[in-house]
Amino acid sequence: MAAQTDRGIPLSALCPKFLHTNSTSHTWPFSAVAELIDNAYDPDVKARQFWIDKTKVKGHDCLTFMDNGAGIDYDKMHKMLSFGFSDKQTINGHVPVGLYGNGFKSGSMRLGKDAIVFSKKGDSMCVGMLSQTYLQNTGAENVVVPIVTFRPAGTELIELLHQE
To answer: 17-163 maps to which CATH number?
Structure first.
């Protein structure tokens, strides 16, 4: 049975195959890379620098995108990993690049099957995962987005799992 609101109305579901389908909006990898760079440029991010690195992890190519921006907390991580949600606003005349809440998902899934996002904001750290491999291996019928939030000392686990 589909998830429902408190009034019994079925919530929309998102099939895991959509992650790949959505990524095909990028006809070549560089438009996907540009999409991820654009996120660091948005006014609320406040990034001054951006790095891209390529390495191998267990024999697989791994691209790392990193900025020195403001970081995101659990709520922003959830919104970033959700589909079609954006609360970006113009700040001091600096207009955000994306407004539709799709760029990270389409860009990251064009470059690979899995994306892990690490962020630090204040004294809180957050890790979120958007993974076609995970969804396939678990037999998920809907997109599930694990998010873990913790404090640097590692003593407090704030949130463990969130389902989209």
So the answer is: 3.30.565.10
